[in-house]
Write a structure and sequence with these properties.
InterPro entries: YgfZ/GCV_T_CS, YgfZ/GcvT. By secondary structure, this protein is α+β, with helices and mostly antiparallel strands. The chain is built from five helices and twelve strands.
Length: 255
């Protein structure tokens, strides 16, 4: 599908390395995923706020013993540094200066690489298209604090562990999981225009009662990941597309 790179901002990412004696323990008390189970592949995860919403959407891998690499949208990297400094003031670890890392698609999987060859608009846009089609959302500054992890199906991607113990926002997140379920949640859609304007919606923009997480321009209009109630989506005029099978399950806790 032919796409335009002019209507949307190309995604940009940075990597920070967290190393030190207390790195694992500290991250375990911050992230939604179980840090002790991380390996060399990037795992989508999040750092929540006290309201149980995603403050920082990240990908993380264990590069070596007591060494973790974290990828985050570049416009959130400085805020993440401040967060780590604040909450890790009494923990023994060092955080590197954020360095550029490039989104790319390898073996049909959206991932990241330090190779300069991938630093092209074509590669970045291919990553955006693949990510939207597979539910691999990315949080930017405009959407910090907007979404609850379960709304974005993070638990269906291995990015949440309900048995690992406390972390920021855990009480609210666990309450939703065990006692209720999100009424609005992630969908993959396509549309032809935004309120007749012919433009692609920005991250965080609301189309009536449908909130955009990420969007990309296509030859026919746009494709997007959105959070909405099914009945609201049915009234929106957007066409629902299929997410991968693992993300088509009910967002509620299995009974």
């Amino acid at each position: 599908m032919t796409q335009s790179i002019n209507a949307v901002t190309l995604a940009q990412f940075s990597q920070l390395s967290i190393q030190g004696e207390d790195a694992e323990k500290f991250l375990q008390g911050q992230l939604t995923c179980n840090v002790t189970k991380l390996g060399l592949s990037y795992q989508a995860a999040a750092i929540g706020n006290l309201k149980g919403r995603i403050e920082f959407g990240i990908w993380i891998k264990k590069q070596a013993e007591k060494h973790y690499d974290v990828v985050i949208s570049t416009d959130c990297a400085e805020a993440l540094q401040g967060h780590l400094k604040k909450f890790g003031a009494f923990s023994k670890f060092d955080t590197s200066t954020p360095m550029p890392i490039y989104p790319c698609v390898i073996d049909n999987v959206p991932t990241f690489s330090h190779q300069d060859d991938y630093n092209t608009s074509e590669n970045i846009q291919a990553w955006m298209q693949s990510s939207i089609a597979t539910g691999n959302y990315w949080i930017v500054a405009a959407t910090q604090g907007e979404f609850q992890p379960q709304e974005l199906r993070l638990h269906q991607r291995g990015g949440m562990d309900y048995d690992k113990g406390c972390y920021l926002g855990q009480e609210v997140i666990a309450r939703i999981y065990f006692k209720s379920a999100p009424k609005a949640f992630l969908h993959y859609v396509k549309g032809t225009s935004v309120k007749g304007s012919g433009t692609t919606p920005a991250a965080g923009e609301k189309l009536d009662k449908v909130q955009v997480v990420n969007a990309i321009t296509t030859s026919e209009g746009f494709e997007a990941l959105v959070v909405a109630r099914p009945e609201q989506l049915a009234e929106s005029g957007l066409t629902i597309l299929d997410l991968p099978l693992a993300l088509q399950a009910d967002v509620a806790r299995p009974k």
